[in-house]
Amino acid sequence: MSAWKRPVSVLVLIHTPDLLVLLLERAAHPGYWQSVTGSQEEGENLAATALREVGEETGITAAPAALRDWREQRDFEIFTEWRHRYAPGVTHNTEHVFSLEVPAPQAVRLAPDEHTAYLWLPWHAAAEKCFSWTNRDSILALPQRLRPGDA
User: Checking phi first, is residue 89 left (phi over 0); if not, alpha (psi -120 to 50) or beta?
Assistant: First the structure.
């Protein structure tokens, strides 16, 4: 197993049927709100990464069938302050988008080394609060992804 993080990750939008979206505040950056994210581990498929990260970051357990793979990916430049986690010369990450519908807003169990708070917000407000453009764009696409024609 490599000591470096793989530059392949998942973004998981956790939401309710009426499109309340769960956001988590980063521990290292108060005011930086995001959906569940995380790097793929060696030998792990992307769906397994998504479900593992949801469990680690929120305590929510979900069946693989509940996870929706958007079959969409976005490449972005890794923030300079986080590049030390990756092999020398790695500057970009490929993020794969998933969503997970839960019946209603619920309390979550945060990983205190990663996040300090959580919020359930209407999708448009959640998109505005995200610091990441990939997260924002994915949340803005959520209504169309789930109910084509209803956005």
Answer: left
**Quick check: 39 and 72 in contact, CB under 8 A?**
no
Q: Fold for domain 8-146?
A: Nucleoside Triphosphate Pyrophosphohydrolase (3.90.79)
User: CA dihedral defined by 97, 102, 53, 94, rounded to 10 degrees?
Assistant: 0
Q: How far apart are CA 23 and CA 4, in angstroms?
A: 27
| Whether the Cβ atoms of residue 35 and residue 13 lie closer than 8 Å to each other | yes
Encoded tokens for 75:
């490449």
Neighbours of 44 (CB within 10 A): 16
Which stretches of the chain are DSSP H helices? 46-58, 123-129, 133-146
Domain spans in the chain, listed from the N-terminal domain onward? 8-146
The one-digit pLDDT tens for each residue of the chain (151 residues) are 578 889 999 999 999 999 999 999 999 889 999 999 999 999 999 999 999 999 999 999 999 999 999 999 999 988 888 898 899 999 998 999 999 999 999 999 999 899 999 999 999 999 999 999 999 999 999 999 987 654 4
CA torsion angle for 80, 82, 74, 98 (degrees, to 10)?
A: -160
